[in-house]
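Bench log. Compound arrived from synthesis this morning; before running ITC I wanted a structural hypothesis for how nicotinamide-adenine-dinucleotide sits in the protein. Inputs:
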Amino acid sequence: MKHILLNYINGEWIESKSSSFLDVINPSDGSLLSVVPAGSADDVALAAEKAHQAYQSWREIPATQRVQYLFKMKLVLEKNAEEIATICTKECGKTFLESKAEILRAVENIEVACGIPKLLQSEFSEDITKGIDEFVIRQPLGTGACITPFNFPVMIAFWFMPYAIACGNTYIVKPSEKVPGTMTRIFELLEELNLPPGVLNMVHGGKETVDAILQNPKISAISFVGSTRVAKYIYQTGVSNGKRIQAQGGAKNPVVVMPDADPDTTVKIITDSAFGCAGQRCLAASLVIMVGEAGKTFTEKIVAAAGAKKTGDGLVEGVEMGPVITRESMARINGLIQGGLDDGAHLLLDGRNIKVPGLESGNFIGPTILGNVSQESEIYNTEVFGPVLCIVNTETLDDSIELINRSRFGNSACIFTRSGAAARKFRHDALAGNVGINIGIAAPMAFFPFSGWKESFFGDLHGQSNHAVEFYTQTKVVIERWHDEWSRKF
Ligand code: NAD
C-alpha cells in the first residue's frame, strides 16, 4: 500500500487538500518510498492561519522559556540521529556518514539559537538629553516559512527555524517534494517537545505550495534555499508582496591550486569536496584552476584519487559516493559532460554508464573529470550538481582570480597554497561569500552567517547566527522621557 505523507498543522497530522500526488523514489534502487501531495493553497492557508493564531501567545512567552523547547529539540535530534540518517540516505542518496554529518550541522544551529536571550539583547543610551533615554528592542515578525532543496533534507531547515521560533515567531517548513519523508519523521519525533500547537507546522508540496506561501498575507518572512532560477523568482515575488526574503541559490565553486600546495592534503580535500554527496552540495568544488606548474603535479593525482572512490548505495559500509537524485538529473549531467567533450574538453575520468551490481535502477554516475575545459562551454558556466570536476590551467594567481570574479555565481572560492601572501591576496580579492584557505568545503559554522554573493544569494541577511536573528526580528526604537521629579525622586 502507498504511504501518503501528511501535513503537520496546529499540532495535528492532516491530509492535504491536494488532488495530485508525487512518488518519492529511492535514488539508489528506484524503489517507491512514499507518496507526497503535490501541493494545495488550502493547506498553506490553514497552516498560516493556525500559525498566526499561535503567534499571539508564543511571542508573549519570555525567550528564556522559549529556548527550553530548543534544548529538548537538540536532544531529540541527537537521540534519533541513526534513524533520521537512514531515512535521509534512502531518500536523497548520500552516504550514511554524510547524513549523520548534516544532522550534526542542524544540531549546531539549535545550539546557537539556544543563546537567543543573549542574541536578542540590544542597545540602550541613557540621558540622550536630560531625563530622556533611548533604546532598541527586537521583536518577532509573526509567522515565517522556509522552502528547502533536496540535497540537505535535514540541515537546511535548521539554518532558519530554530532562530525564528526562539525569537518568538511561529513557523512553517516546506520540505523538498523529492525528500519529504525525512522532515516528516523529524516532525513526528519533535512532538515529544510538546510545543504549543501552531508554533511549528509543515506543509508538503511543490510550486503550488510555494506560490501560496509567497502570496499569503499572514506569512511575513521567507527563507529559501535552492537553484538560482527559483531563488530569483522567490526573491522578486516575495519582495513585491511585501515580505522579507532571503534566497540562497546555486553555485559553481572554483578551487585554485598553487604550485606550492601540499600535495597529499590538497588532493584528498579536493576530491572529497568535488565528489562528496555525489557533487550535490552547493559548496562542492566543481572547477579546479591549476596555476603554473600545479597542473603537472596535481592533475594525475586528483584523477587517481577520484577513480579510487567507491560508488554505490549510501547505506552500505565502505561506499564513499551515492547516486544523483533523479533519472532526469542523471540524464542532464551526462548531457553536460558530452557537451563539454564536444567543445574540446579532455576526458580524464569517465563515470558515465557505471554499473553498481544489484542496483541497475539506481541513478549512478561515477566520479568524472574533464581537463582543458573551454570557458565557452556550458559545463564550464553552469552548475552541474553532480560528480563532475572540470580542470582549467592559468599562468598566474591574478589570472585565476579574474576567472573567479567573472563568474555569475559567488557561493564559495578556495585556494590551496603554503604562501601566506597568496592566501591573503586571494582572501581579499576573490568575489565570493565564503572563502576557503586550504579548505575544500568552506561551510560556515552555525555561529557564522552562511554567506553567498552574486547570483548565489538574493537578499541582505543570510541564514544562521546573528543574521538569522536579525532576519526574524524587527527593531523598535523607543525614546522615553522621565522627568527628573518622576525618575530621581521617590
Ligand atoms: P530547486 O530550486 O529545484 O527546489 C528548491 C525548492 O523550491 C523546493 O522546495 C521546490 O519545491 C521549490 N521549487 C522548485 N521549483 C519551483 C518553482 N518553479 N517555483 C516555486 N518553487 C519551486 O532546487 P533543488 O534541485 O531541490 O536543490 C538543488 C539546488 O539548491 C542547487 O542549485 C544548489 O546549489 C542549491 N543549494 C544552494 C544552497 C546554498 O546555500 N546556496 C544550499 C543547498 C542547495
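What the model suggests: The longest strand covers residues 132-140. Residues 41-58 form the longest helix (18 residues).
ITC booked for Thursday regardless.
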